[in-house]
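Good morning,

Attaching, inline, the backbone tokens for the sequence recovery test we're adding to the shared suite. The designed sequence is right after.
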């Protein structure tokens, strides 16, 4: 049995740079979702990519978060967490065993932690990172000579075959890129969108279709991007309850999705006719709540080109921007501290509405 790829140097630094602004990329695999996605290598192995894990903290005792015995040829993958000594990811293929180590104490404050394992076999390097965005903390270790990841092992991981998975492990996934898809605004496929011919499900729209905007204009869609995303941990969506938001039914949106709010309270608090509020800042666990009932959500983002507010069924949603240089929104996006008094006013009859 051969052993290689031992621990690299650990370091502490805030979440900045490439880790904070990675370009969008699609998933190859997501936990609790059968089958692999996207363009896959004909060789049957991934020579480079990133595994992403999110877990609920604290984990006080040493814990095996994930353990795949192997889908064939003596393969296997295991992730260990010890708050006192760090992380270890063991990868086995036949007689070769690699242990990737991130040594050092891990923070145990309540919250969600993210672990990223990046490997690049042609470049002969790997990195193992532990991130706590809520604490502005990132720990990392690097090393050499990783093993490639067989697609059969990845399929077995997501299917749950011969795998131990700790309840604290909220979800995991894999991408061929150096970072997971960044958080971005999206809406559910069944979100009703106002068009000149009536309301249509967002998932049925295509580039070139005409939609109604909050300012009364009719504009064509430049892009419609559908993507499957995890629905737990940092990617958990927000459920907006009817009739507080929308007229006919509950709406599912990303925590980053902005809604347009109007009313006299908006004018009084901010001196403006309308403002934008991110869905995460509307959460009150009654009219808007975190949705955790599903493991994976099929989502869509609608791009108008220049940013605009798209009319839905009784609410209005800020359009996405799929590429190029970001342009300013049509009205101001409130910070969390500004949104709090507005949300309090929205609970009262006759208060401001998302419209």
């Amino acid at each position: 049995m051969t052993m290689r790829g031992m621990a690299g140097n650990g370091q502490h630094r805030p979440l900045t740079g490439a880790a904070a602004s990675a370009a969008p990329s699609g998933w190859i695999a997501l936990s609790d979702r059968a089958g692999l996605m996207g363009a896959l290598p004909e060789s049957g192995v991934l020579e480079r990519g990133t595994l992403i894990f999110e877990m609920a903290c604290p984990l006080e005792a040493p814990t095996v978060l994930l353990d795949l015995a192997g889908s064939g040829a003596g393969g296997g993958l295991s992730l260990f967490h010890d708050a006192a000594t760090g992380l270890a990811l063991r990868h086995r293929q036949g007689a070769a065993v690699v242990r990737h180590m991130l040594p050092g104490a891990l923070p145990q404050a309540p919250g969600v932690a993210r672990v990223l394992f990046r490997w690049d076999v042609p470049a002969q390097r790997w990195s193992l990172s532990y991130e706590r965005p809520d604490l502005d903390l990132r720990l990392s270790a690097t090393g050499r000579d990783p093993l490639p990841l067989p697609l059969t092992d990845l399929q077995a991981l997501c299917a749950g075959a011969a795998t131990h998975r700790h309840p604290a492990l909220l979800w995991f996934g894999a991408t061929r890129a150096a970072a997971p898809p960044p958080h971005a605004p999206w809406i559910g496929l069944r979100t009703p969108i106002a068009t000149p011919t009536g309301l249509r499900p967002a998932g049925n729209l295509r580039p070139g279709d005409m939609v109604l905007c909050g300012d009364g204009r009719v504009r064509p869609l430049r892009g419609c991007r559908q993507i499957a995303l995890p629905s737990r941990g940092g990617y958990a969506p927000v459920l907006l309850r009817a009739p507080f938001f929308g007229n006919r039914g509950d709406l599912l949106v990303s925590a980053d999705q902005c809604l347009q709010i109007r009313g006299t309270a908006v004018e009084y608090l901010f001196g403006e006719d309308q403002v934008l509020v991110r869905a995460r800042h509307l959460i009150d666990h009654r009219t808007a709540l975190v949705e955790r009932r599903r493991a994976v959500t099929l989502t869509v983002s609608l791009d108008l080109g220049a940013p605009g507010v798209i009319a839905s069924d009784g609410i209005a949603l800020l359009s996405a921007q799929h590429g190029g240089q970001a342009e300013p929104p049509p009205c101001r996006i409130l910070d969390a501290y500004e949104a709090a008094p507005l949300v309090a006013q929205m609970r009262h009859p006759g208060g401001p509405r998302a419209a």
